[in-house]
Amino acid sequence: MTSSRAGLRRTVERYRPLGLAVLVGGGVWYSATGALGVRSPLPGVLILAVAVAAGWAAAIVHRRRWPLFAAAAAAWLLLAAWPAPVAASWQAGLRLRGRRLLGGFLAGAALVLTLGVLIGRAVGGDRGLTTATPGNAVAMAAWLVIFPLVVGLWIGARRDTLAALRDRAARLEREQEARAERARAEERARIAREMHDVVAHRVSLMVVHAGALEVTAADPATVEAAALIRSTGRQALTDLREVLGVLRQASGGVAPAPAGAGLPGTAPLPGLGAVDELVRESRAAGLRVERQDEGTPAAVPATVGRTVYRVVQEALTNVRKHAADAEVTVRLQHLTGGIEVSIRNGPSTAGAGLPGAGLGLVGLRERVELLGGRLEAGPRDGGFLVRALIPVEEER
After folding, report:
1. Which end of the chain is more exposed for a tag (fewer CB within 10 A), N or C?
2. CA dist., res. 366 & res. 375, Å (int)
């Protein structure tokens, strides 16, 4: 219903000048020929010329006002045709603003009406009876000037009021959006502070203690494990700084960095090329990971590469937490219109794993679906399978 109403309004706006021209021009013709008013003794060619001029002036009144006022004066003085003066008075009330303009129009209308009375008395006949007698002259002034002018002023005032209300509503909407954005920025800043004060502090302590253990331990296996913990903790701090930087940038009104780009002073965000590093880290942590590639590798957008990296990272993290003794296969299949990544682990006999919130896969699914892909995760043959298919748009 709303769309059809809007379409009707657009159609009316498009054909309004033509409709007004036809009404005014046709009205002048029929009035001067006696069908709607006093029949004029002037030649039909002159009547037609005045009618066409009045219609043309009515059609362009939204750009220029004076042609309609001039045509109205000519139609009344030459033909005693009322449609053009009525249209001129209506448009004057609709478009003229300020006392000086309205006063000038009323003065001009009074002059034209006075001349019309004098011409009516001189011509006599039906025109003199209709326009030059005192009672009819007053009635004509009311009909030709006062009434249409008041209607135009009322419509113009209503339009101004509606425009002011629309402007106020738009301003209030912008202010509401600004307040909501400020609230989001403050919340992002608060989250960044909390993450820095809590998470970064704890991870920093873990890195420090792992470094001390690496230096003081005598057992080579302990030294290797401590080194792995320290490097993993440092990488976690780097990732955390990147996340906090994004939060602070957004809260400060700065546009986030493009996908795949790092913050100033940091390394670029990991992408498809960093999957090998994830596999090496997992092997160093004791996982039995096999990497497989199928198809011909091609350049992919940074957002796709980063999503593939996060899928592999989350899946390998879940394997370390819940099935650390299982065999794992990481497979990347490069397709024509996308890339498929799957991480499958076999059965595990390690028993209950580390606790988890269960939100990692939910976040992965949202990330993949934002790119138009799909993700499935669930038990498979005694183990677990995570598979994501991410489309890649071809460059044109």
Report:
1. C
2. 9
Spell out the residues 6+ positions from residue 348 whose beta carbon is closer than 8 angstroms to its own.
322, 323, 324, 325, 326, 383
Q: For 67-113, give the DSSP string.
A: HHHHHHHHIIIII---HHHHHHHHHHHHH--SHHHHHHHHHHHHHHH
More confident residue, 131 or 52: 52
Of 51-60, 75-84, 345-354, 358-367, least confident by mean pLDDT is 345-354
Distant-in-sequence, close-in-space partners of 112: CB < 8 Å, separation ≥ 6: 72, 73, 76, 77, 85
Residue type, 271: G
Within 10 angstroms of residue 47's Cβ, the number of other Cβ atoms is 21
Say how many C-beta atoms besides its own lie within 10 A of residue 159's C-beta.
11
389 contacts 374 by C-beta, under 8 angstroms:
yes
pTM, to two decimals? 0.50
Q: Give the integer Cα–Cα distance in Å for 162 and 174.
A: 18
Q: Residue 255: pLDDT band by 50, 70, 90 thresholds?
A: very low
Look at strands 374-380 and 338-345 and give their pairing: unpaired
For residues 120 and 255, the model is more confident at 120
Two structure tokens written together for 386: 């995570």
- Distance of alpha carbon 136 from alpha carbon 121, whole angstroms: 12
Name the residue with higher pLDDT: 271 or 175: 175
The pLDDT of 198-224, averaged and rounded, is 78
Per-residue pLDDT tens digits for 115-154: 999 998 888 888 888 888 888 889 989 999 999 999 999 9
- What average pLDDT does the structure give for the chain? 83
For the chain, the C-alpha Rg in angstroms (whole number) is 41
Burial 96-112 (b: 16+ CB within 10 A, else e): beeeeeeeebeebbeeb
Between 275-284 and 302-322, two packed helices, what is the crossing angle to 10 degrees? 10
Quote the DSSP letter at residue 255.
P
